[in-house]
Amino acid sequence: MRADARKNRDHVLAAAGTAITEQGVDVSLRDIARRADVGLATLLRHFPTREALLEALLRTSFDEMTVRAGELETSSSPEDALVSWLRDCVAWTTEYRGVTVLMAAAIEDTESALHASCVTLRAAGARLLARAQTAGMARTDIDGTDLFALVAALAWLSDQPSLAPRADHLFDVVASAILTSAASADAPG
Question: What whole-number distance in Å separates Cα of residue 189 and Cα of residue 181?
């Protein structure tokens, strides 16, 4: 790719990130092009669909969350690794308004540009969950799909103005419901 084309592409991605953070994933492509100071045709040449733009924007974050899961797997206890990754994943999904809806749809749609990244992210969480389950630290009646859904639900809470102040507390409630050691430690004795 030519240097000027690479510069335009990177500028479009930066503008898209800002626009989606502010307005959500349904922000107008024209608005993104305007923010990037390029024509709509230039944006569409690099990203022929909204999903292609989102995939390019989100892929790096998905990859970082997957790498983070691997790091936690080797550096933390199963329980701490699972909760840390879950917290990081929820925090990341709240950065881009509306992304959880796209992720939930993409996981089921093999034709989606986001499908492979979402599947990889779900698998990373599932590995951490399975590790905690094997160690007897997490309930065994949930799987990676359930964990992925809980990330979406917790991110949704943070996006609701009336519930956002309770999001951290509700995260702790959900985490303690997943972890058998936390649940038994909180039980009256």
Answer: 14
